[in-house]
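TASK: fixed-backbone design
INPUT:
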């Protein structure tokens, strides 16, 4: 994820932002996070360190601030501490200098006031206005002190008279009625009168103090607000002066074109770089991504503001219709504004209310020995796994969860530019992994012929169908079509490798996305999923690898890199980076984010080679980009998700019973339904029954196939196929599917784009659902 390069002005005079700090002649300038607060300038290696590790702090009250050149400045406190700092632009440097000077002045003033505390005399050099305000404050403080002393005196009197009144009342209780009664009553009356008078005085003093404090509090608040507004105006004025100075300098030098050799300050050696002063920042919100040490092979820096004023036809060959320039609609806002789905159209047909909860997950302990002791003497591949390791969804339903953020494809379908469309498709590929971050439960392995439909035409404009087309190796075919102009299809087979401490799951097969309006056809493959701490420890999931999203019509390509988690990396966890290029390899967009939170894109204005070498020794590419635009952000999980298998809002509805679905639909699977209801022992028994039933059907199908192929061997019993359900052994992935099984709704073809054999939807399911004709469906449950 990108971090803002423009410093942040936070409440209470706190100033934060990224600067480059000189370390040594080997490492040069290193990027550090600086925080200016209460007259102290501190720095950290990253924002995450702010809570526990400060790398250094300097007191500005006694520090000297020196400007070296357009981007460099030095802060020193007399020899013991010296910071050589560099900003990414002159404007950013001026912002820091302004903040540091103001903080230094305030710190010096507070230190002087602390040293002179108790001395009411004013300095002869002070201005008349400042002296007047000081006298007013001193007078107010003396008045408040007087009131506080009055309150203290009244408090002592109340305590004294209250004690005397208490003694009199005690004596009155012990006196017999007689001659002494009238005298005692008179004393009590006097004591009570004194106490009442003192209490009234106390109340009046409190009232006077409160009124005085309230009156002066309002005046001080107004004065403080005026000082803050004046400070903001001064900062804005200084910033404008810095910009004007920069423009005058550039006009004097006649420099109107940004040198192509410019690179990020992070990769410069100590000392000024020619042409560095040309980088100005008219857009205060421009930001750029930093160089990633282990993953990224490129660096991005803010583009020169002159690009904001050019038309799109003059910048990198990108048309102006992308809407990424200042003064036009952003890439995300443009697509949102053009969304034809309106509230009026949704109100025509009542939308079904979906469930938002499922029964909480039971807290059942699992004894591995209780599983293994009943399997002694059996083949390892025959050992069934209990539902304790599962979640109450099938793999077909998990596959349908890829459509959680279907809106990205809806927006992509409305894009006029194929490059902009590629950004949304790339964000969609990343978003499909966001639901897996906490989902350590294993989905149910679908039975052969099992289906799952997801009809969301009323709510979202799309409908989806999945079918288990092979069981060994397990493979599922998926087809989704939207009324908003896109089609998604895929066939995914799974290969896994157990490495001792972790399990790697490698999806095989391609995903296709076709947009009707532009006829753009995109394909990509999934990355490797790794489940860690299989034997000991808490399970956690990571995604790693690379994805190439290819537009087969235009030749555009997006290369995405999922960074594997590393204990020693200082980078953001679960980071994803990518670059969108055209058929000639020219970069147009840079993508950055994390697969569990969000993705952003930045439009590339110019690129150049140079700077730090990557892991393979090649130089990284430096991209000058505009401000990042958010493409996708993960929707928060529903309340109580930790007790519901960490299901998302969509996942909670996938196993909800529906009328009219096929008899092979995953919602009708009894063991899965029992597990969802918390009846795990019954679910385990039902699961074993379904597995044995599937084996019987498999043997019968093979017997019939052998009869038709070899009539002479009709009486022979075929070997029991290694048909397993959720076995703990790792079966090698076979390259062929069942020759004697024909899926109901998909047919095997050679894909015209990838030239790979795959299953493509043949049609007929939704028509059969409308007619309620499921006679051809097998009985698998």
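OUTPUT:
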């Amino acid at each position: 994820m990108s971090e803002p390069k423009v410093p942040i002005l936070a409440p209470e005079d706190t100033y934060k932002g990224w600067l480059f700090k000189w370390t040594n002649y080997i490492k040069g300038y290193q990027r550090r996070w600086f925080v200016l607060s209460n007259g102290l300038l501190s720095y950290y290696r990253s924002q995450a360190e702010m809570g526990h590790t400060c790398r250094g702090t300097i007191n500005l009250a006694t520090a000297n601030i020196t400007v070296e050149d357009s981007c460099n400045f030095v802060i020193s406190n007399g020899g013991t501490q010296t910071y050589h700092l560099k900003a990414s632009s002159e404007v950013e440097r001026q912002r820091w200098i302004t903040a540091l000077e103001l903080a230094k002045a305030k710190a010096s003033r507070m230190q002087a006031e602390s040293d002179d505390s108790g001395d009411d005399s004013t300095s002869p050099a002070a201005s008349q206005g400042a002296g007047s305000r000081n006298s007013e404050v001193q007078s107010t403080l003396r008045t408040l002190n007087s009131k506080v002393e009055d309150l203290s005196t009244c408090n002592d009197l109340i305590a004294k008279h209250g004690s005397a009144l208490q003694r009199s009342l005690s004596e009155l209780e012990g006196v017999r009625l007689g001659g002494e009664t009238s005298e005692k009553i008179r004393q009590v009356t006097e004591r009570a009168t004194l106490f009442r008078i003192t209490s009234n005085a106390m109340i009046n003093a409190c009232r006077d103090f409160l009124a005085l404090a309230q009156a002066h509090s309002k005046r001080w608040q107004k004065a403080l607000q005026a000082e803050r507004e004046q400070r903001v105006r001064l900062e804005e004025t200084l910033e404008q002066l810095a910009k004007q100075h920069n423009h005058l300098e550039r006009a004097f030098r006649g420099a109107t074109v940004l040198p192509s050799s410019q690179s990020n300050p992070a990769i410069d050696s100590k000392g000024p770089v020619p042409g560095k002063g040309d980088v100005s920042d008219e857009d205060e919100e421009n930001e750029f991504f930093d160089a990633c040490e282990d993953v990224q092979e490129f660096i991005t820096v803010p583009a020169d503001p002159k690009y904001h004023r050019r038309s799109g036809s003059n910048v990198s060959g990108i048309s102006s219709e992308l809407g990424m320039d200042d003064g036009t609609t952003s890439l995300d806002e443009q697509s949102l504004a053009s969304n034809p789905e309106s509230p009026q159209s949704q109100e025509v047909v009542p939308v079904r209310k979906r469930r938002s909860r499922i029964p909480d997950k039971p807290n059942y302990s699992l004894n591995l020995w209780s599983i293994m002791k009943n399997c002694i003497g059996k083949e390892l591949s025959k050992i069934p796994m209990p539902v304790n390791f599962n979640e109450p969804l099938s793999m077909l339903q998990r596959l349908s969860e890829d459509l959680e953020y279907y809106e990205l494809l809806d927006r992509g379908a409305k894009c006029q530019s194929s490059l902009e469309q590629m950004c949304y498709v790339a964000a969609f590929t990343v978003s499909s992994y966001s639901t897996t971050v906490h989902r350590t439960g294993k989905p149910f392995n679908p039975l052969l012929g099992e289906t799952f439909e997801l009809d969301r035409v009323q709510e979202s404009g799309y409908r989806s169908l999945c079918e288990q087309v092979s069981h060994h190796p397990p493979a599922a075919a998926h087809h989704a079509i939207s009324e908003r102009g896109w089609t998604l299809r895929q066939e995914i087979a799974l290969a896994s490798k157990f490495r001792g401490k972790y399990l790697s799951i490698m999806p095989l097969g391609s995903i296709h996305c076709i947009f009707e309006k532009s006829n753009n056809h995109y394909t990509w493959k999934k990355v490797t999923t790794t489940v860690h701490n299989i034997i000991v420890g808490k399970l956690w999931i990571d995604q790693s690898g690379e994805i190439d999203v290819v537009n087969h019509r235009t030749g555009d390509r997006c290369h995405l890199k999922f960074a594997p988690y590393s204990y020693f990396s200082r980078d953001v966890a679960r980071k994803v980076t990518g670059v969108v290029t055209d058929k000639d390899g020219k970069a147009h967009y840079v993508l950055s984010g994390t697969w569990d939170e969000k993705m952003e894109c930045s439009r590339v204005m110019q690129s150049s080679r140079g700077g730090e070498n990557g892991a393979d020794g090649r130089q990284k590419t430096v991209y000058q980009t505009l401000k990042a635009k958010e493409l996708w952000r993960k929707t928060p999980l529903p309340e109580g998700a930790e007790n519901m298998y960490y299901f998302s809002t969509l996942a909670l509805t996938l196993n909800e019973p529906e009328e009219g679905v096929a008899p092979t639909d995953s919602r009708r699977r009894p063991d899965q339904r029992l597990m969802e209801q918390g009846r795990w022992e019954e679910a385990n028994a039902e699961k074993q029954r379904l597995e044995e039933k599937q084996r019987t059907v498999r043997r019968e199908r093979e017997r019939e196939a052998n009869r038709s192929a070899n009539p002479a061997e009709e009486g022979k019993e075929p070997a029991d196929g290694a048909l397993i359900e959720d076995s703990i052994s790792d079966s090698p992935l076979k390259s062929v599917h069942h020759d004697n099984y024909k899926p109901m709704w998909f047919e095997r073809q050679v894909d015209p784009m990838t030239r790979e054999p795959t299953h493509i939807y043949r049609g007929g399911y939704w028509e059969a659902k409308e007619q309620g004709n499921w006679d051809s469906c097998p009985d698998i449950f």
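COMMENT: The chain has a mean pLDDT of 77.
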